[in-house]
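Q: Please design a sequence for this.
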């Protein structure tokens, strides 16, 4: 996924009210950027750290920038929660994820029951519903999800089990927007209910794909599938 606009460099002053961040640009100007990540952003917040923003021209938007990434321990961590959906769609469309390739039809935002899944794919042999989650939290060598309690995420897992029970393929795709981790796991201490449901879903046949992404100011690319522990 290539960024459509040239990103703007700055430093994080502070994040506040969940969806806002004060950024000092290289020019010295202080701007307010929109933060798409509603979670706690544990392990990817550091005041004074380098950041990159996308400029926004929409006159209806109060904020004129969207926060894309932050440099932590010398590497870029993607914090825009909208990007993983774009990455996943492009990757399935182009057959770039081994095990999730070979589909002739790929669509975004498809309903199943009272849920809406991020990606739907099919071919002559199967139908597949994919839910995509952004992962930015790190603990030691682990990438963890979620970084805050997610009742919506719990609902998606239950619906994926229903998808599987109806004879279709059900996939939980975690896009890990950082390169300094080696394993994926649910954040049991933050949301034990989600961790239990993920284990239950996996036992019911829901597939887990933790895909690590390489984040840079020009593009975000999927690099490899990580092992996971439940």
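A: Design:
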């Amino acid at each position: 996924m290539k960024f459509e606009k040239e990103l703007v460099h700055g430093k994080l002053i502070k994040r506040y009210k969940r969806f806002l961040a004060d950024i000092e640009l290289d020019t010295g100007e202080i701007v307010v950027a929109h933060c798409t990540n509603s979670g706690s952003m544990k392990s990817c917040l550091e005041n004074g750290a380098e950041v990159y923003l996308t400029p926004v021209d929409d006159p209806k938007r109060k904020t004129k920038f969207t926060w894309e990434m932050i440099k932590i321990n010398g590497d870029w961590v993607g914090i825009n929660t909208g990007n993983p959906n774009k990455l996943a769609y492009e990757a399935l469309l182009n057959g770039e994820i081994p095990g999730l390739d070979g589909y002739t039809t790929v669509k975004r935002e498809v309903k199943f029951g009272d849920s809406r899944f991020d990606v739907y794919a099919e071919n002559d042999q199967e139908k597949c519903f994919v839910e995509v989650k952004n992962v930015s939290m790190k603990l030691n060598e682990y990438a963890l999800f979620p970084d805050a309690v997610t009742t919506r995420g719990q609902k998606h897992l239950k619906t994926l089990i229903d998808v599987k029970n109806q004879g279709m393929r059900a996939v939980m795709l975690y896009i890990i927007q950082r390169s300094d981790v080696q394993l994926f796991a649910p954040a049991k201490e933050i949301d034990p209910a989600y961790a239990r449901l993920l284990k239950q879903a996996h036992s019911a046949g829901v597939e887990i794909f933790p895909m690590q992404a390489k984040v840079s100011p020009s593009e975000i690319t999927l690099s490899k599938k990580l092992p996971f522990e439940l």
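Q: Thanks. Anything notable?
A: The mean pLDDT is 96. The chain has two domains: 8-78, 83-225.
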